[in-house]
Design goal:
Mean pLDDT: 95
Oligomer: single chain
Number of helices: 11
Strand content: 5-15%
Number of strands: 10
Radius of gyration: 20 Å
Order of helices and strands: HHHHHEHEHEHEEEHEHEEEH
Strand order of the largest sheet: 3-2-1-4-7-9-10
Distance between the termini: 18 Å
Low-confidence stretches: none
Structural class: alpha/beta
Bound molecules: ribulose-1,5-diphosphate
């Protein structure tokens, strides 16, 4: 229980962050938690697994990769607890391997859209987007990346560190400078926390203004997103919840206390309409956003009937 709570806390506080990493960490935790459970009673075991699943899903509401990964593992079968444990291990290991593979494939596929000499703007820190930069660079293409700081949590600093380690030329800019620099950009590549059935993309706050500026300048926007970032529940008409994080990430409580009439808003993500997206690069192919429905139905591997109708994951 202690380790389960620690993993949940790490996801909540963003020590583990990025939609893909969150999903893999949740799958691994369910596997390890199951392995640690002492009971031989299937009912008790299933109850505890359900609790763990619910706890992990509740940590961050926007990254749909999280409930998708949990749902994948929770499809386990088994008459006995031992059978259930080995089914959980198989499913979790499969999810993690598929996920790592997907990020690599997206890199290879996305790199075909990158030309030698391109300047590419990105936002936040996305392993899938970085995989494209790494792949293009490994193919010998000379690329320059413009990375935004991504306030308030400054994930841009992680991006510049990763790109620097890869030997890729990178320029760090403040978030409000994206339109100013757009004229120098050939291509925009960003990640996703969720893709809805109508092809909208939910990603780090600021993604939509970057995409809007790119659209205005007729620059292509590519979203790098594994299929498990597509949201099945949006087929049921549900909206993806946008996480509102603590105001202290923007302005300290002490500083805020100096004002009488000021409040702070801190949404972590925003929605980019599909009109501003040229291509979503998934591990099963580069698709126009309009094809999101097909990905959800064909590749996510479960039917709508499997979903709870009350809006709760577990
Ligand atoms: C991270 C973020 C990333 C996506 C995709 O937000 O918006 O662009 O999660 O990342 P946060 P990846 O830092 O709040 O988790 O491609 O690594 O899954």
């Amino acid at each position: 229980m202690k380790q389960l709570k620690e993993t949940a806390q790490k996801i909540k506080t963003m020590e583990i962050r990025g939609a893909g990493r969150i999903a893999r960490a949740a799958a691994a935790e369910l596997r390890d938690y199951a392995g640690r459970l002492k009971t031989d009673e299937p009912d008790e075991f299933n109850k505890k697994m359900k609790y763990a699943a619910g706890l992990l899903v509740s940590t961050r509401p926007t990254a749909v990769s999280l409930p998708n990964a949990v749902r994948w593992v929770m499809r386990y079968k088994g008459e006995t607890v031992d059978e259930a444990k080995s089914s959980i291990k198989k499913l979790a290991d499969e999810f993690i391997a598929n996920s790592e593979n997907a990020v690599r494939k997206i890199g290879e596929m996305g790199a075909r859209r990158v030309r030698d000499g391109d300047t590419i703007m990105t936002h936040c820190n996305s392993a899938a987007a970085t995989s494209i930069f790494a792949s293009a660079h490994a193919q010998g293409k000379e690329i320059n990346v413009i990375a935004t700081e991504s306030r308030p949590r400054m994930q841009g600093l992680i991006t510049i560190k990763q790109l620097d380690n890869l030997g890729i030329n990178t320029t760090l800019i403040v978030d409000s400078a994206v339109r100013y620099f757009m004229k120098e950009v050939d291509l925009v590549i960003m990640g996703a926390d969720a893709v809805t059935v109508n092809g909208s993309v939910i990603n780090k706050i600021g993604t939509s203004q970057l995409a809007l500026a790119a659209h205005e300048s007729r620059k292509n926007v590519i979203i790098a997103a594994e299929t498990y970032k597509f949201s099945p529940r949006t087929i049921l008409g549900e909206l993806v919840e946008i996480e509102e994080r603590d105001s202290g990430e923007v302005l300290s409580r002490e500083k805020l206390g100096e004002f009488s009439n000021v409040s702070v808003k801190n949404p972590a993500f925003d929605v980019t309409p599909r009109e501003y997206i040229d291509l979503i690069c998934t591990e099963v192919g580069a698709i126009p956003p309009e094809m999101a429905y097909i990905i959800i139905r064909e590749y996510l591997g479960w039917e709508l009937g499997e979903m709870n109708s009350d809006g709760k994951e577990y």
